[in-house]
Specification:
Blueprint (H helix, E strand, L loop, with lengths): L1 H15 L3 H10 L7 H45 L9 H22 L5 H6 L7 H24 L2 H18 L2
């Protein structure tokens, strides 16, 4: 019974961010035999892994679905729906915000892809967002999405009708 309480305390210490040295010092304060340190720490880590294997698959699948659906919705909204609203002012800021949000949600959906599998949880646990990696990976797609969105604004449905009208006027002016 005493070992269970000690293991629970070790689990709390590990979750709080303590390293093995601090945990061993804690175990010495609890007057536990130094031969049992490794087995108690291993038992606590196994208990944490067991809890992660129960909870992380559901959480990571849900997070992946949310980020992927946001990616698709934002792409459709920014690349198709927003340009058809005939917004003349604010094309550049809307394109920038749309490109950044599309790339952010795409990066997060890639980050959570297959993170619900057992070997991923055992190796990594929960995916961690790294800002430096995000900027490195998303810089080129952000620029490409910016040009795609701004091009859709420029060559939207009204612009095509305007070009057609100009072409018809030019052809009529050639014929006497």
């Amino acid at each position: 019974m005493k070992n269970e309480k000690v293991i629970e305390a070790i689990v709390e210490k590990i979750n709080a961010g303590y390293d093995d040295y601090d945990i061993e010092r804690f175990l010495k304060q609890q007057e536990i035999n130094s031969d049992e340190f490794d087995t108690l720490i291993a038992a606590a880590k196994d208990k944490i892994l067991e809890h992660q294997l129960k909870t992380y698959p559901k959480q990571n699948k849900r997070a992946f679905r949310v980020w992927l659906s946001l990616f698709v919705l934002l792409f459709l909204f920014c690349a198709i729906i927003l340009p058809t609203l005939n917004i003349a002012n604010g094309i550049i800021p809307l394109s920038i915000v749309g490109a950044i949000s599309i790339c952010f949600t795409g990066f997060k959906s890639i980050l959570y892809y297959k993170s619900w599998e057992k070997d991923f949880i055992e190796r990594v646990g929960k995916p961690k967002f790294d800002l430096q990696t995000y900027f490195l990976v998303s810089s080129l797609p952000t620029v490409l999405f910016y040009f795609i969105i701004s091009w859709n604004f420029i060559s939207g449905p009204g612009h095509n009708l305007y070009k057609l009208g100009m072409t018809v006027k030019f052809i009529k002016s050639l014929m006497p």
